[in-house]
Amino acid sequence: MITAVDHVQLAARPGTEDDLRAYYAGVLGMTEVPKPAVLAAGGGCWFQAGAVQLHLGMEDGHTPSAKAHPALRVTGIRRYAEQLVRRGARVQWDRGLPGVLRFYSWDPAGNRIEFLEADSPAEP
After folding, report:
1. In the chain, what are the domain boundaries?
2. pTM of the full predicted structure?
3. Residue 21 contacts by C-beta under 8 Å, 6 or more apart in sequence?
4. How far is CA 73 from the centre of its chain?
């Protein structure tokens, strides 16, 4: 029986770990977690925020998907989006899902990430 998502794996071109660290740790505020030694030799990096883990694996010729993406729930979504913009990230708001505030951002590998929060009736 499935009980939870353990992590989401995204891909990037080999040698881009420093750019990924700058985005996931520096922009998004996630914490890098060490990869097990047996996996570290293949490159890549792992990040965590609360119970959420994103793993970035290296893939020769990586081409990001136009549609596939992880969706991360956040609190204070407007403040969080402003923080990402101040730190140099692209933010694109999308009001296409009723009852939800959400935006997308793209990591240095071109992977799209959705951020969402339930819309409060008190929100303008």
Report:
1. 8-60+67-118
2. 0.92
3. 32, 45
4. 11
The CATH code of domain 8-60+67-118 reads 3.10.180.10
Is the CA virtual torsion 18, 21, 10, 8 positive or negative? Answer: positive
Q: Are 101 and 123 in contact (CB under 8 A)?
A: yes
Tokens of 22: 């700058």
> Tens-digit pLDDT profile for the chain (124 aa)?
988 999 999 999 999 999 999 999 999 999 999 999 999 999 999 999 999 999 999 999 999 999 999 999 999 999 999 999 999 999 999 999 999 999 999 999 999 999 999 987 654 4
Helix boundaries (H) for the chain: 17-21, 37-40, 77-86
> Please, which contacts does 24-33 make with residues 24 or more away whose CB atoms are closer than 8 Å?
24/54, 24/56, 24/107, 26/87, 27/84, 27/87, 27/88, 27/89, 28/84, 28/89, 29/83, 30/54
Q: If you write DSSP's letter for every residue of 42-72 in order, what string do you get?
A: T--EEEEETTEEEEEEE-TT----SS---EE
